[in-house]
Amino acid sequence: MIEDCDWIQDLKSHGEEDLASIRKNGCVRADLDPDDCRLWHKTFWGSVHGNLEDTESRVDIEKDARAFDGDFFRAWTIAGYVILRRNIILDAFNGIHFFNDAPDSIVEDFCRNIVIEENWFVRIRDNAIEAEDYAWNWTVRRNRFVDCYMPYSLEMKRSGFFYVYGNLGWNLHRPGPDKDDRNFGQLFKFPKKHEAVGPHYVFNNSWMLRGPISKRYRFSQFHHLNNAIGYYGAEAQSTPQASAPFGAGWQVEPPAGQDEQSIEDLHFTKLWRELDIHFDGDLIDHKYFPDALQGAGYPIGPDATGDAVPFRSTILGKPEGLKLTAAVPAIAFDINLPDGRKQAIPALGHEVGAWQGQQLFNLDGPMFYDDWPNAELSPCAAKDDESSSPNDAPPQA
After folding, report:
1. Contacts of 302 (CB under 8 A, 6+ apart)
2. N or C: which end of the chain has fewer CB within 10 A?
3. Cα separations in angstroms, 94 against 182, 223, 316, 352
């Protein structure tokens, strides 16, 4: 269990001011300019993490910044059973990073049962939360993401039973120098190939974005439901085409004789029925959502809407600002649990987005909590604001 830790990787930033504000006021300092932060705005992505394949050039030793290529938490093929809670990670290249390169015959014994909750990720230049290779039974809930290049990197070969809910995020500022080709980002990074052994649920989150939900590739058994997503648009140097929810090439069709998978490097896959992908109940304020995207072959559900999201305020990093000024009804659905049971998420009293009235959406703790000696069983023990109280949503066993 790793909780209540503070980490600023790059001290040539205003991370200390933001940290003090988060701990005292529950929000970042929106009056400070992120252009002053070295790793976030002045450092090329390739000088930290690039290789010959990525950058088509060799390392420039004079400008190399590979000392930043690390993480707040990195795990190499560990069994799992990790809780990361109430940590604040600022001005870093990566946040939380799991690898699993065990032999295929035993790979499912590793990277299991992970909970990431109530953390802040501020100006993360690469990935805030990253799972690589193989992972099982993760709960990612009630975190705050402020100006993260890619909040979620899920480049896994095989995975299942992910539950991502009650999170808040703001992607207002463009990272990197103006000439950096890694300075736009996306909400989810997916692999070219993926096998699901269980579902992946992303529901009741609230975001202000400047880029796509996913630019390209595919992900199996991905269920995106009841999320509220607004866009900063021109304010964040973003155009409708560049910020298109499923990538700028969303209108591209496969050349004659080729199938959809052959062009998934241009946009997120359209093979939703084959891969069990669902987007429904979402409120996404983008000019292409849902009608134009449906017309291009994305089978977005009938209860998804493209109306303006009535956020109270979109001020960077202010959690209460992502409350809705008018309730938007959510749809009902079931989630499958790792032990084979189903959990009903009802429509009655349930709103779109992370906030449910004065509280963030919450479910009871994952099953392994009950089997962990000395674990703090309270699902949320945040001390800094009203969002720490659980709501009346039905429990997840």
Report:
1. 280
2. N
3. 14, 25, 20, 29
Residue 174, Ramachandran bin (φ over 0: left; ψ between -120 and 50: alpha; else beta) = beta
Give, in order, the Cα–Cα distances in Å from 159 to each of 142, 168, 241, 252, 381.
22, 24, 31, 29, 28
pLDDT digits (tens, 9 = 90+) for 139-155: 999 999 999 999 999 99
Cα-based distances in Å from 14 to 66, 119, 283: 21, 19, 34
What are 84's strand-pairing partners?
2, 116
pLDDT tens by residue, 360-384: 999 988 877 666 544 443 333 333 4
What's the pTM value of the predicted model, to 2 decimals?
0.92
DSSP 100-133: ----GGGGGGSSEEEEEES-EEEEEEEEEEEEEE
- Name every residue whose Cβ is closer than 8 Å to that of residue 392 and which is 6 or more positions away in sequence: 349
Question: 365: Cβ–Cβ under 8 A, 6 or more apart, which residues?
Answer: 115, 139, 377, 379, 396
What pairs with residue 92 in β-bridges?
A: 124
* Element spanning 138, H or E: strand 120-141
CB distance 358 to 386 below 8 Å: yes
Q: What angle do CA 219, 221, 224 make, to 5 degrees?
A: 85
Cα gap 162→159, rounded to integer Å: 8
| 278: Cα within 13 Å, side-chain hemisphere | 19
35 neighbors 115 (Cβ within 8 angstroms): no
- Taking the C-alpha atoms of residue 94 and residue 74, their distance in angstroms, rounded to an integer, is 9
How many Å is the maximal CA-CA distance in the chain?
60
For 373, residues 6+ apart whose C-beta sits below 8 A from its C-beta are none
Distances in Å between the Cα of 149 and the Cα atoms of 32, 95, 114, 192, 370 are: 18, 11, 22, 20, 35
Strand spans (E) along 186-337: 188-189, 195-196, 200-203, 206-209, 222-225, 228-231, 277-280, 283-284, 333-336
